[in-house]
Amino acid sequence: MNQEKSIKLKVVEANSLDPFKSRVRIDKETMNLLNLKLNDCVAVKGNNLAIGRVYEMREEDSGKSEIRIDSIMRENCGSKLNDLVDVFRVDPVPAKAVKLIAAGRNYPSLNTELLDFFKRLLYQTPLFKGNVIAVNLPGEFKIGGTANPLYRSVETEPDSTAVYISNETELAIL
């Protein structure tokens, strides 16, 4: 990870459309400083590391040195609202393997067909080992009463870098 070009930003609440989507909203100036474009990945470092895809802030939010992230991203990076976090570009690599466990709830076990379905839904999801991610289920589909079941990555291969889930990733839910 290349942290030599990072910037400190104040954590503020995510936009109403962003929860459960690993989105990081920053302004154009910050994007330019970090040499980022839409959909690039950034690491957000508080007490831990989180990763998200870059989206642009609304124009009225620009120039405030803020980052808009949801509660899952705040949990992953170990921060809370109004904290200062370091933000820097990361280029995740395709994961060879990712192991997930249910985070906070006892979701039913998944058969092979459902696991393949989850893998398609998580395609290109960036993560670090230890991060919580949401599976955004379509339509009326729910697991454990929610359309956004949460899972924690307990193992990634490689394990010391940012990864994303690809078609070749071996996905397991324990």
UniProtKB/TrEMBL annotation:
<dbReference type="InterPro" id="IPR003338">
    <property type="entry name" value="CDC4_N-term_subdom"/>
</dbReference>
<dbReference type="Pfam" id="PF02359">
    <property type="entry name" value="CDC48_N"/>
</dbReference>
<protein>
    <recommendedName>
        <fullName>CDC48 N-terminal subdomain domain-containing protein</fullName>
    </recommendedName>
</protein>
<keyword id="KW-0547">Nucleotide-binding</keyword>
<dbReference type="InterPro" id="IPR029067">
    <property type="entry name" value="CDC48_domain_2-like_sf"/>
</dbReference>
<dbReference type="InterPro" id="IPR009010">
    <property type="entry name" value="Asp_de-COase-like_dom_sf"/>
</dbReference>
<keyword id="KW-0067">ATP-binding</keyword>
<dbReference type="GO" id="GO:0005524">
    <property type="term" value="F:ATP binding"/>
</dbReference>
<feature type="domain" description="CDC48 N-terminal subdomain">
    <location>
        <begin position="8"/>
        <end position="93"/>
    </location>
</feature>
